[in-house]
Amino acid sequence: MHGGGPVITPRKNHIDKVLSTVESGSAAARSKLAASWLRSVKHHGLDPAEHRAPQRISASALKHRHEQQERFMLVASPKLDQLFGLVGNSGCGVLLTDESGVVLDQRCADSDVGIFQDWGLWSGADWSEAAEGTNGIGTCLTEKRQVTIHRDDHFFARNIGMSCMDAPIFGIDGNVVAALDVSSARADQTEAFNRLIGATVAQTARQIEADFFRASFPEARIVIADTGESDSSVLLAIDSDDIVIGATRGARKSFGLEAHGRLKPRPASDLFGRDDNTSGFEKAERAAVMRALTRADGNVSRAARALGIGRATLYRRMKRLGVGE
C-alpha cells in the first residue's frame, strides 16, 4: 500500500526532471543533453508529458523519399543487413533515416515487429528533434555527431523505455544525408552494452559513407588519407587529369576545403605537396604508383594504363614522388 500520498511514477519523475532542468539557467551550458531538452521546449514547443504516437508521413510521401534516395539506399542496404546480423539477436532493431529524421528503412526480428511498430520505430515515422524532442535520431542529426540516448535521456516520458545509438552519415557535398540508428526497448540493456553497439554503429556509418562516395565517383581514382581520424571517412576522388573532383567531409576538414556544397576543382599536387606530414596522401599516392609499377614489372606504359592515366602523367607523378623508372 502507498498510504494516502500520491504515487510517483518513473514517467512523472522524468517529466519533473526535464522541466526543472529546462528552467535552470545554467544546465544547458553545462550539458549537451540539457541543451537538447531546452531546444525541445523552447524552440520546438514540446511537452515531455505529451502522450501520442510518433508522427508518420503518407505512403506516397515515403515513396517519393525512397526515389530521391534510391542510389544511397542501394549502397546502404547491405550494411544494414550486416549490422542487423550483429545486433538483431539481442532484441535490437536497425533503422536508416533521411537527413530530416524520417525512417526510410528498418530491420528487426519477426518476433519484435509488433514492439517496434508500437514504439514508432518503423518506416515513415518522423524522429526529428522537432517532432520527438531529444532522441537518438533527431539529436544526432541536429548536432551532427554520434550520440547515445539511453532510456531517460529521452525528452518525452513515453520514450524512456528505449535506448538509441546513432551516427550521422555525410554525403559527397559534406552535408548530412542520413542517420544510422540501433534502438532497443529491452529493460536490461546496460550503458556499457550501448557503448559497444554505439561504436559498431559509428563504424558502419563510416563504411556506408565511404561506399557511397566511391559509388558517386565511379570513374575517379579514390585516394585514402592516413590521418588517424576515427570519426569520419577521409577520401579524395581524383580524375584522369589529376584534378581533385570530390572529397568526403573528413577530407574537406583535413585539407581546409569547402565545408559544404560543390567542391572547387584543384590539382591534386596542390594538396599532396603539403609538407606537413599530417595527411598521408602523398604516402598513399606513392604506394599506389609503386604497386602499379611492380605489377607491370616496371613497364611505365602498362602501369599508367592500370592507373587509368597517361604515360606522360605517370612520368610527371613519378618525378614528383621521387620514384625512379
Describe this structure in words.
By secondary structure, the chain is α+β, with helices and mostly antiparallel strands. It folds into two domains: 50-214, 2-Layer Sandwich (Beta-Lactamase), CATH 3.30.450.40; 218-321, no CATH class. It has 14 helices and nine strands. The protein has helices spanning 10-23, 27-30, 32-43, 59-68, 70-87, 113-119, 129-132, 136-143, 191-216, 249-255, 268-272, 281-295, 300-307, 311-321, and strands at 92-98, 103-107, 147-150, 163-170, 176-184, 221-224, 235-238, 243-247, 266-267. The strands form two sheets. The protein has a five-stranded antiparallel β-sheet, sandwiched between helices. A four-stranded antiparallel β-sheet has the order 6-7-8-9, sandwiched between helices. A hairpin with a 5-residue loop joins strand 4 (163-170) and strand 5. Helix 5 (70-87) runs antiparallel to helix 9 (191-216) and helix 13 (300-307) crosses helix 14 (311-321). The radius of gyration is 24 Å and the shape is elongated. The relative contact order is 0.09.
Number of strands: 9
Strand content: 5-15%
Low-confidence stretches: none
Average pLDDT taken over every residue: 89
- CATH classification class of the largest domain: Alpha Beta
Q: Output the helix-strand order.
A: HHHHHEEHHHEEEHEEEHEHHHH
What's the CATH H-level superfamily name of the largest domain? GAF domain
Task: Give short descriptive properties of this protein.
elongated, 2 domains, Beta-Lactamase, alpha+beta, 15% strand, four-stranded antiparallel β-sheet, 325 residues, five-stranded antiparallel β-sheet, 9 strands
